[in-house]
Design brief:
Structural class: mainly beta
Mean pLDDT: 95
Helix content: under 10%
Largest sheet: 4 strands, antiparallel
Shape: globular
Strand content: 35-45%
Number of helices: 1
Low-confidence stretches: none
Number of strands: 30
Distance between the termini: 19 Å
Oligomer: single chain
Strand order of the largest sheet: 2-1-30-29
Length: about 325
């Protein structure tokens, strides 16, 4: 993989400078690298922001508990696309990962994996995973068929919550109240429940002023203030202060239709620090979007995901 500049880049100063962190240590002493893989998602352990899980688009899952020590391959998972990863917020050795039509669970920190859900249709993918932070026995998964399923016993049994007949691209649980859950559905927009799925509100009715807002690319529910949310859609970057009942536009440097935002991240300690990445450029605002700075990505590849270290928010992963 020499000469490849993909994988993961890390900044220790809010995106001003970047350094690759891609090595995989080996017994032989000659390090391997993830610089050549395509990254699908990067997830941090809620209880330990130094524990990172990388879902690739075709090479399985990699993880690290200390980035200075390199990456490890999760050998019990398929060597294929990993659709989603989630870590139990109260038990860091319990991890869920999905590949194809299967949901896998590890209870021993990636040493072994077992299948806890298997869809009968091999063409259906388990596209998203979320864990209730108040009661981690409650696990939610979304499928490419549009099914939202719930387990109340950490994956031993499952029941349907809602069906949308379109790919569920994300499940987001409020850090303030785990009864408040948002799902993003391909080309249908965003839906909200305040009672763990008993009833749902279609937020597109509240976003009529923003064309193409039904095509959601990223969603962030902020930790600092209940109700505060940020959303990336094909329209652009939006903000809500009331769990999506009303929305306002955040002005970007580029015209909205030309932005093509792939991923967004907001400092969990300061909602005025907003970052987003396109296929060529990294953008940063330190004043809530009133002004922006931009720089070329430190790679010839497209920007796929952004993640901020929750305890040291000057550290950003790209």
């Amino acid at each position: 993989s020499g000469g490849k500049d993909g994988g993961v880049h890390v900044s220790n100063n809010k995106g001003k400078n970047w350094q690759q962190n891609n090595l995989i240590p080996t017994i032989q002493g000659k390090a391997k690298s993830i610089a050549g893989i395509a990254v699908h998602d990067l997830v941090a352990d809620p209880s330990d922001p130094n524990a990172l899980y990388l879902a690739s688009k075709g090479a399985g899952m990699f993880y690290t508990f200390d980035l200075s020590q390199g990456w490890n391959k999760a050998k019990g998972l398929p060597n294929s696309k990993i659709n989603a990863v989630a870590v139990d917020p109260q038990s860091k050795c319990t991890i869920y990962a999905s590949a194809g039509n299967k949901l896998f669970q590890s209870t021993d920190c990636n040493r072994s994996w077992e299948t806890v859900y298997h869809d009968n249709d091999s063409q259906v993918g388990i596209s998203s995973i979320a864990i209730d932070h108040y009661d981690p026995s409650q696990v939610y998964i979304g499928t490419s068929r549009g099914d939202l399923l719930k387990s109340s016993d950490r994956g031993d049994s499952w029941s349907p919550v809602k069906r949308w007949n379109k790919n569920i691209t994300g499940i987001h649980i409020s850090p303030h109240d785990s009864r408040v859950i948002f799902t993003t559905v391909k080309n249908k927009g965003t839906f909200r429940t305040k009672d763990r799925g008993e009833s749902w509100t279609d937020l597109q009715d509240k976003m009529k002023d923003f064309s193409n807002s039904n095509k959601v690319r990223d969603l962030d529910i902020h930790e600092s203030e209940e109700g505060l949310m940020f959303m990336v859609t094909n329209y652009g970057l939006l903000r809500s202060g009331d769990y999506g009942d009303s929305w306002s536009k955040i002005e970007l440097l580029t015209p909205d239709k030309k932005a093509t935002i792939n991923a967004m991240a907001v400092n969990p300690k300061n909602p005025d620090e907003i970052y987003y990445v396109t296929e060529t450029t990294f953008y940063r605002s330190l004043d809530g979007g009133d002004s922006w700075s931009s720089q070329a990505l430190p790679t010839g590849r497209h920007g796929a995901d952004l993640l901020i270290n929750s305890k040291k928010p000057n550290i950003i992963y790209l």
